[in-house]
TrEMBL record:
Domain of life of the organism encoding this protein: Bacteria
Ranges for domain HD-GYP: 235-430
InterPro entries documented for this protein: Cyclic_di-GMP/3'3'-cGAMP_PDE (IPR052020), HD/PDEase_dom (IPR003607), HD_domain (IPR006674), HD_GYP_dom (IPR037522), HDIG_dom (IPR006675)
Taxonomic placement: Bacteria, Bacillati, Actinomycetota, Actinomycetes, Kitasatosporales
One Pfam family cited in the UniProt record for this chain: HD_5
Entry protein name: HD-GYP domain-containing protein
Thylakoid as UniProt keyword: no
Entry annotated with the keyword Transmembrane: yes
Record-annotated membrane-spanning stretches: 152-172, 184-206, 212-230
Record keywords, A-Z: Membrane, Transmembrane, Transmembrane helix
The HD domain, residue ranges: 257-379
Amino acid sequence: MEATPARARGYVLCVVLAALYCVHAVPTAPVPWWAVALLAALYAGGERLSGSFYPVLLAGAFLLPPSAAALVAVPGALLGPVSEVAPAGRTAPLPTQALAPVAGHPRPLRRVWRAARLMVAVWAAARVHWALGERDAVVAADFPYALLPAGAAVLAFCLTLTVLDGGILALAERVPVRRAWRGQFLRSLAPIAVHGLAGLMMAVLWRSPFGPFAALLVLLPMCVSWWAFAQYHRERAAHQATIRALVQAVDIKDGYTRGHSERVGQASLMIARELGLADERVEVLRFAGILHDVGKLGVPTRLLRKNGPLTPEERRVIELHPEYGHEMVRGISFLGEARAAVLHHHERLDGSGYPYGLSGAQIPESARVVAVADAFDAMTSTRSYSRARPVPVALRELEKCAGSQFDPRMVTALVRAVDQYGWHPAVTADEPAAPAVRPPVADVPGAHR
């Protein structure tokens, strides 16, 4: 388990103190504690279903004084399930929730963090709502005007989560500061606004002559949709577990490239983001990088670990691994264009690559991304047949081969991304490499097999 940095623990402590201050404040109106208990129970039950039952929290912000509303999140956040798998890409039900259940940090700390951040966010939403509309906003005769304080409360809730999550991203997950907050608010606003509308409907029905029971009816269709959403993510989690198992098998078989797949996935992700691709495609290209060498499971281990250059016959055997890999992953439907990248990542722009000698635009875009990422990591990692090169040298080699071997767009994107965020390649050999014998120049830069 990765130790949580002291600065991140200090940050969490500050948020906890802020949460305690929120609930310590004297209520501005009598508190219906039965309503607090009922909403807290609903939220705790919803946490087990979806992991983000925000309509109940926002209904509490519309119905209760701020200090009481903040308490609604506590039981569900502290007692709810804590996932051991960090979300990949944007797969969490809400983007702002991605850091609540991050794996690699102690469970108690994650639970406390999740509770504190929600308490502060709900308190902020309730404070804004009461400042603009007070308690009668959800029962006013001219109902459309209730949307103004409710909308402002939703914005406060979303903004608070964005600020808090950006901080924990930067401190606990070591995300560069310039990326920690970038785009989070806009990605979160739409789904949280939908939750806010449902919370407002709950609050209006709660205060209607039909009472709390009618408010619960609002949750029924949302529960069904969240159940379907949870099923979808369970299926994706199963696929990701399969991917991890395949990559681990490759790493065990080819010890000299241990960690290579994950780094190629990261480099592919950096290129895709620099190209401005949609989040869904960025995630798929990360999978493509991770799985690009899975076909090595079909290659004899003695060839993968051989010191020095390969014979022509041995090279022909090695060059079958893209086709082996494509056969292994073609049945995983959600991989999409990643399957083409597995098959074609050794093709070259000038048509001299393998397995089919494609050229130019015939090579799928995903394969052109992974080809650059693969060669870059090959050059910056020590292998049995070559020593690691400095990152600037590897980038210059890629630029030299752009247009003949690699797509210039992909090379330029990687250069920009590395210049902006940096790159820290690891030595992947199991033991210090002996003086390397260079493979033939015809191989890719970095002597990658």
